[in-house]
Design goal:
It contains seven helices and four strands, in the order αααααββαββα. By secondary structure, the protein is an alpha+beta fold.
Amino acid sequence: MSIEAPAEKTPFALTDKDRENLAPTDEEYQPHTWDNLKQIIGKLPFALYPSLPLYSSPEAALWLSRTGTRLTSILPASNNLENLRRYPSDLRRYLAWTADTKATYGTITNFICEERLHWTPLLTNGPTDQGPVFHIENSTPFADSRDYKILINDWPYGLEEGIVHIVVWLKNRLAVDTTNDKGDLEWNSRALVEDFVKRMFVEKLGEGAEDKVMWFRNWTDLQSVRGIDHIHVLVRGIGRETVEKMIEESVPTSP
């Protein structure tokens, strides 16, 4: 299915934020730089969070001690994820593509399952707010490569040249913090993601890679595909071909 579609189609009523993002031309648009992304989703020093309850949590202290993970690496960032934008022309095409895809497949989730992930849900008649249910090999997210799939994003945000936008799709569910209304990850889910990104990307890229990789998960309210859990990974300075090779090597081999 082509991702091109008439630009006048929209799958939902546009918000003021949508109209603001559509207003400039591509020439006027300022792409996200790496430093800008750090400000939006990057890691902030723990000194800015002196009263964070996580710091005094016995469970957190035990996990940090056992894994050797620095507390600063799992803290939420400034988390202004609503400020991530696409090029205006890409946003117009994305809105049109979304409308066409929903008309053809019913939902974006159906399209992702059928055409991109090739995953068959076990249940299709469960509660609509929970999304499809899949057979999983391991109940711990990211523990088995058959329970996730890594793809380069078909619709990346408007990033400066040299940054590759990756999406990691999960059959498992990542636990969210029920104490806030954004649907952000709870700390142990964040730690699982941090460990996976470090193992899958940072360690494979070698020395200096910690400043070449960032990840985020959109809050529930910001997700365009809510039925299947997924995280976003941004990698810079290594080339799309290298990223594609890393993704290819991550695919599990048939027994």
